[in-house]
Every structure is written in C-alpha cells, then in structure tokens.
Amino acid sequence: MKKKSVLIIGNYPPPFGGVPRHIEYLVPYLVEKGWNVHVLSGGNSGIEYKNGFSVYKPNRLSKVYNLIKTFCRINKKCSFDFKSIRRKHPRKWLRYMIYISFGREIIEKEHIAIISAYNLYSYAPIGAVLSDEYNIPLVVTNFGEIYSMNNFVKNNSDLIKYICKIAKKLLAMSYHCAQSYKLLGLAPDVEVIPYGVDVEKFSSNKDGSKIRYKLGINASDKAVLFVGRLIKDMGLHTLLESIPKVLQTKEEIKFIIVGQKGELLPIALQLAEKYKHSVFVMPNVPFGELPSYYAASTIVVAPTQGERACGSLAAIEAMATGKPVIASSVGGVPEIVIDRKIGLLISPEDPDALRSAILSLLQDETAIDKMGMIGRKRVEEFYDNNKTNQKIELLFRELSGG
C-alpha cells in the first residue's frame, strides 16, 4: 500500500499539555501504520527530523520570508475574506498568514492527503485555508476556546462558520466541548473521540518508592499529588490555599506539586519553604518520570477551573496508575471522573471543599483502593491511546480515500 502523507497543525511538545501530549502519542502510531507525518507547530526551532516524521517550528528569519511570500496571494484561492481579521486582530492575522505560507510549502513538497488542525482559535483557520486552496480533506478538533475566547469567536463568527463549512470532520475530546458550538448558534455534527494515555507507561504496577525516598516521604505516609502547569487555570492556587488548612488538621500529610513552570511557581516555592517536610515542588519534571510520581502518590488532585476544560489529562494518567482523583466539577471533567466511583468532584476554586475532600478520602483506605481499581478499568476501556489513536487513523484513511 502506498504511503499517504498527513499534515498535523498543532503544538508538538514542548510546550506540554493535553494537545501536545496527544499529538506526541498520535504521531508514532501514524508512522507505524505507514503514514508520512508532518507537524506544523508553534515554536521557533526550525525543522526537526524525528524518528520517521518531521516537525516544523518556524524560526524568525523563515517567518519573515514566508510572510513576504504570502502578501496578496491569500484571496486568490481562499473563499474567506480575511480583511476583518487583519483590521481587528492584526497580530493574529500575521500569524495566520505566516503559517499558511509554511503549510503551502509542506503541501506542495510532500503531497499531503489530509490535514488535521487543532483549536478553532489557533490552528483551525490555517488548516481551513489550506484545505480550501488545495481541496484536501480537513479534520478540525475544537477545545474550550469557544468558552475561553468567547469575545474573539463571537466577534469573528464568520471565521468559525467558514471552518465548519470547510472541515470534512469535526472532533472533540468530550461532549462538553462538542456542544460548545451552540454558544455561537451553530449545530454542526461533532464526533467525540477522547484522548488516551499510554496504559503501559502509566500503570498500577509502577513503583514510586524511589520518588518517596528522594523526597524523604515514608512508605506509610499519605501523599497528595498535583500534576499540571503551575498556573491559575489549572487550579493550583486553590490547592495552595487549601494546603495550610489540611496541615492544620493532619500535619503528617505530604503534598507533591509537579509541573511546567508558570506564574504560581514562586508562591508554591514559598509554601514549600514554610512547610519543608510536607510540601515538595518539582518544576519541569521530565515526562518519563511522571509515572513514578503518580505511583508515589496516594491520591491525585486536579482542581481545574473554568468551563474551557474539555477534560483532564492528569486525571486520566492518575486513573491509569490506579489512583483516585479529586477534581473540579467543571467542563468535561465529570465525563472522566465519575463522582464517588473513581474519585470526588468538588466545586472549582473552593479551598475548603478541596480540604474536606482530601481529608475525607485519605481516611478511607477501602475507598482509595476501590476507586483506583475502577479508574484503571475505565481507562483501559475508554482512554487507552492505542484505541483512541486507532479511531483517528481509521478516520484519516476514510476521509483520504482509504
């Protein structure tokens, strides 16, 4: 069978997060299935040739070059008029133009058979123009941008309608985000394909003893883990407020905070300095070490805030490792964490509710074990990345002609 080429437009790690991790999982699977894979990503490191695929992160010089090439060409083939975007959002328009030019080069050189673009705000407009110009099938995955970028998408509803018109398939990782188009008065057909994790890498068989030894946490200690970007959107501020409240009641509980550096890192470090034997902050932990941190924990907290959350990668990874999760009942998170069965759902941005949930769950070892087992089974059924990747690969084949 002749190899087909796919152009994926979305962030490839770094930075880290749900979409970059999903693309990082998906790309090797596509390569294994015989695809030539090309990823057009944010960043500025240039072209990187990986194991069987290419990642394009345009540097400054190439951006200028491609911008010059782009001027006056776009409206010749594209059915969408970008003048309003250029007038109201000039920097966003410049970015679109630059990446469209890069996409053209890749398409013309690599004979792309299908385009997959992520995020209605960042990359889907680029994919839509390229699909329109070259008559290539387009798959678009939306996230919480209709919730979080409400002003932009409402003020540029024609752009969103154009994307929906051009796309052959619209995807979302949760029903919550699939339904977000309703806020714009739109009702397109959206298929839900959850994002998966590596169920062998994240498993209940992992040993966390080395992490506990490294941090000075005894085998009998109860440990609460947070994994995510160290920013307010991930709800870290709620956890930081709740930690002193927990320690006032149970000073022997340990907290491990792991994630990419962000705005709340200084505050987290101050708390770790105040509670030297109870709070441990580990910024920028390599991905390969994350399973051991999950294994070292007793429970995991994911206090995400806001309706923009399509789901929670940390919750899925925790469940895969057999750990119960305390999570905010927002966005698509309740589709992942079933309350009282896999963990506990609480109100977002409520330090007292988080404190109560932590103390309640940690004193019930039977519930911890049972929730962990149910969570692991749920991941194996719905969030195994081999299954989710297979669905996407089969969709690509179907749309590109088999």
Topology of helices and strands:
Layout: E1 4-9, H1 18-32, E2 35-40, E3 46-49, E4 53-57, H2 60-70, H3 74-77, H4 83-88, H5 90-110, E5 112-118, H6 119-134, E6 138-141, H7 145-148, H8 150-155, H9 157-166, E7 169-172, H10 175-178, E8 190-192, H11 209-215, E9 223-227, H12 236-249, E10 254-259, H13 265-274, E11 279-283, H14 290-296, E12 299-302, H15 313-320, E13 325-328, H16 333-336, E14 343-346, H17 351-362, H18 365-382, H19 385-399
Parallel strand pairs: 1-2, 1-5, 2-4, 5-6, 6-7, 7-8, 9-10, 9-12, 10-11, 12-13, 13-14
Antiparallel strand pairs: 3-4
Helix pairs in contact: 1-19, 2-5, 5-6, 6-9, 11-14, 12-17, 15-18
Descriptive overview:
By secondary structure, the chain is an alpha/beta fold. The chain has two domains: 209 residues, Glycogen Phosphorylase B (Rossmann fold), CATH 3.40.50; 174 residues, Rossmann fold, CATH 3.40.50. Helix content is 48%, strand content 17%. An eight-stranded mixed sheet has the order 3-4-2-1-5-6-7-8, sandwiched between helices. α6 links the parallel β5 and β6. The chain is elongated, with a radius of gyration of 22 Å. It starts with a strand and ends with a helix.
